[in-house]
Design brief:
By secondary structure, the chain is α/β, with parallel strands linked by helices. The chain has twelve helices and 22 strands. It binds NADPH dihydro-nicotinamide-adenine-dinucleotide phosphate.
């Protein structure tokens, strides 16, 4: 049987673009790719990239204050969202263009429309065109989940926050995960009176407890109003704003309410179940380690598979898929010891097990340090950096490394190499400190804070 394509990819995000580029450019496959929105996907268009630019934008106010302490004669008159937003749009256009070029240069044919699966070898485009392919890759990502409650239609999500016409005076962020905590810090840094409601007792559930507490304390010290144990029961229009009634009976008025209460796989109406693809309870595509679904010709990578919802993981899954299916090299991504960063202020970099996870598995030694870093101390700030190594008492292997500090994301990338290599505490110790730096503290942690 002949097909129109060797591979047809649905979704032009991190995973789909990498798979298409490698399959066509490196392995000579004939590849088509359909994207219904903008090329680049969540990460580039409405996720990591614009978020990080907003993080940078929100940090300059504090940096300008610190600059004054360093002798700079500056006057900060406030943040201009409109000016920043114009620059943001321009940068996203540039990046989208770069993604398109990458695909074009690799010989991938792109279709700017929605595609759905008809059967194991056929997709239908929104304009009615049917296309056959030997393999189909589902890389449609996820979308924000908003629970149903009275007035839930008034909320925005991370999809809309990048398109605000103006900066709100007072904002509410609901949720306690990556996205909620990052945006609470961003808006606060931009001068917005920012409140965060989280239903549990501490934000960033799942991460190391001491780090969560450290981050929350600093966020609050910097002005974010974190209300734990609080959720919304009702939202009503109140003039231009919204009146929120919470589970504890309190009411407050906000200009915007943003929900960041998790993301769900984007599989609705995609035709997968009808084509025989096994789906999970959350609507995720069930795959094996090679990203193959229950239908042998259909594969899936990235957030739609609900494995680890991080761009670099989607990229690796897409690359491994292309190498396996078109390059004759059977390989999988590696989901162990994945370093990641939460771009809160203060920033959090983490790899490996939290103290709580490690303690549940065996005897550990925990090394911690908290200190005021010289750069901000000089400027009169009370902010503290916090670092922790979780070490196996038996093997001495560093099971987890957690850093709450400016640039913690940059630090954890490198510490992640050591942890991934199976470094022991003694390997850290025999590495000479880089002085004066913050990260040198990681190699000078002499006595355990506790043993459990
Ligand atoms: P998360 O799963 O991290 O957090 C969801 C939050 O919403 C949790 O605090 C959860 O509470 C809360 N929640 C869930 N359902 C409800 C509900 N019905 N009512 C009230 N609160 C609710 O999701 P995010 O949306 O923040 O992020 C999605 C994924 O995107 C992340 O898991 C991450 O992999 C990725 N991401 C990574 C980033 C990075 O690397 N820096 C940045 C942004 C996103 P509870 O804890 O009680 O369950």
């Amino acid at each position: 049987m002949t097909f129109d394509y060797d591979l047809f990819v649905i979704g032009g995000g991190s995973g789909g673009v990498r798979a298409a580029r490698v399959a066509a450019g490196d392995h000579g496959a004939k590849v088509g790719l359909a994207e219904e929105f903008r090329m680049g996907g969540t990460c580039v268009i409405r996720g990591c990239v614009p978020k990080k630019l907003m993080v940078f934008a929100s940090e300059y106010g504090g940096m300008a204050e610190d600059a004054q302490a360093y002798g700079w004669d500056l006057e900060v008159k406030g943040f201009d969202w409109t000016r920043f937003h114009a620059g943001l749009e321009k940068e996203l256009d540039r990046l989208e263009g770069a993604y398109r070029n990458t695909l074009r240069n690799a010989g991938v044919q792109t279709f700017d429309q929605r595609a759905t699966v008809v059967d194991p070898h056929t997709v239908a485009l929104a304009d009615g065109t049917r296309i056959t392919a030997k393999h189909i890759l589902i890389a449609v990502g996820g979308r924000p989940f908003v629970p149903e409650f009275e007035g839930s239609e008034h909320v925005i999500t991370s999809n809309e926050i990048f398109h605000m016409k103006a900066l709100p005076k007072k904002a509410l962020i609901v949720g306690g995960g990556y996205i909620a905590s990052e945006f609470a810090c961003i808006l606060n840094g931009m001068g917005v009176d920012t409140h965060q409601y989280y239903r549990g007792n501490q934000i960033l559930r799942g991460f190391d407890d001491e780090c969560r507490n450290h981050i929350a304390t600093h966020m609050q010290a910097h002005g974010v109003h974190i209300h734990t144990g609080r959720d919304i029961v009702r939202l009503e229009k109140d003039g231009e704003g919204l009146l929120a009634t919470a589970t504890d009976g309190s009411t407050d008025r906000f200009d915007i309410v943003m929900y960041a209460t998790g993301r769900v796989p984007n599989t609705e109406g995609l035709g997968l179940a009808d084509a025989g693809v096994k789906m999970g309870l959350k609507g995720e595509v069930v795959v094996d380690d090679y990203s193959q679904t229950s239908v042998p010709s259909i594969f899936a990578v990235g957030d739609v598979t609900d494995r680890i919802a991080l761009t670099p993981i989607a990229i690796r899954e897409g690359h491994a898929f292309a190498d396996t299916v078109f390059g004759g090299q059977k390989r999988t991504a590696d989901w162990e010891l994945v370093p990641s960063a939460v771009f809160t202020q203060p920033e959090f970099g983490t790899v490996g097990l939290s103290e709580e996870e490690a303690a549940a598995k065996g005897a550990i030694e925990v090394y911690t340090t908290a200190f005021r870093p010289m750069q901000t101390l000089f400027a009169g700030r009370q902010d503290r950096v916090f670092m922790k190594l979780v070490v196996s008492a038996q093997t001495r292997v560093v099971l987890g490394c957690h850093i709450v500090a400016p640039h913690a994301g940059e630090m954890i990338q490198l510490a992640g190499v050591a942890v991934k290599m199976g470094a022991t505490k003694e390997d850290f110790d025999r590495t000479v400190a880089v002085h004066p730096s913050m990260s040198e503290e990681l190699v000078t942690l002499r006595k355990p804070t506790r043993k459990t």
